[in-house]
């Protein structure tokens, strides 16, 4: 099985850190984010990697080369312009001929990809999405009313739960038929199109093993959490 890692974004929300360095190459501990992702795939038995690159691609290619140094085989799908998530994935079409993993290059995962692949196959899904059980508290009191305006309940800063997209998928190769060539296209558009066509979309839910690195604040938090985990391992 192959893993396609989307590593071609501009990283605009992380500037100036990404002015000279592509976001997946920003350090987390002593390794770039992308190396952590490759290590995670390898630990889960996926050792054939396709990197979709564009912005500052030479930084990535010079570091990873063919992947032998990292115990994997790496191929490169290159685009000349930003294509959004699904548009980037489309550039890897020539490398894919079987069930594959697709991963966003700006997150850190530590859940069982093996179990996700097993679920995908057992459910005979077209696409399986990794979903993270996210909890947060609203900043305001929530007032429930009837249609006539009668107040029935007051919940002060209630906790809400939602399953959010983590940016890791197990997909069948035919998913690529839903993506136009050389055009920015979002993964949400692909999933919605597949659902309209009655394709089986499955969710793999986890309560841990996810760190998003989308902006400066989340990148700082990810580094702090990673440092704490590293200390615990050393103990």
Shape: globular
- Can you give the helix content as a percent range? 25-40%
Order of strands, main sheet, comes to 5-4-1-6-11-8-12
Radius of gyration: 20 Å
Span of the ends, CA to CA: 35 Å
What does this structure look like?
- This protein has 235 residues and is an alpha/beta fold.
- 28% of the residues lie in helices and 31% in strands.
- The chain has 6 helices and 13 strands.
- Strands 5-4-1-6-11-8-12 form a 7-stranded mixed beta sheet, sandwiched between helices. It has a two-stranded antiparallel ribbon with strand order 2-3. A two-stranded antiparallel sheet has the order 7-13.
- Helix 3 crosses helix 5 (187-196).
- The longest helix is centred in the last third of the chain and has 19 residues, at 216-234.
- It is globular, with a radius of gyration of 20 Å.
- The model has no long low-confidence stretch (mean pLDDT 91).
């Amino acid at each position: 099985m192959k893993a396609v890692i989307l590593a071609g974004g501009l990283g605009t929300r992380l500037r100036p850190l990404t002015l000279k360095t592509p976001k997946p190459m920003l350090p987390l501990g002593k390794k770039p984010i992308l190396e952590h992702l490759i290590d995670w795939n390898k630990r889960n038995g996926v050792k054939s990697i396709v990197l979709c690159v564009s912005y500052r691609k030479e930084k990535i290619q010079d570091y990873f080369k063919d992947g032998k140094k990292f115990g994997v085989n790496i191929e490169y799908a290159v685009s000349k312009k930003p294509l959004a998530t699904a548009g980037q994935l489309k550039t890897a079409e020539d490398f894919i001929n079987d069930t594959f993993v697709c991963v966003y290059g700006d997150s850190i995962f530590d859940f069982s990809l093996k179990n996700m692949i097993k679920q995908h196959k057992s459910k005979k899904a077209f696409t399986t999405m990794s979903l993270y059980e996210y909890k947060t508290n609203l900043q305001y009191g929530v007032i429930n009313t009837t249609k006539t305006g009668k107040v029935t309940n007051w919940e002060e800063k209630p906790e809400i739960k939602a399953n959010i997209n983590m940016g890791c998928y197990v997909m069948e190769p035919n998913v690529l038929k839903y993506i136009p060539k050389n055009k920015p296209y979002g993964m949400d558009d692909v999933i919605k199109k597949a659902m309209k066509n009655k394709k089986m979309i499955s969710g793999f839910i986890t309560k841990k093993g996810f760190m998003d690195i989308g902006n400066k604040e989340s990148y700082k938090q990810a580094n702090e959490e990673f440092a704490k985990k590293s200390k615990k391992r050393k103990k």
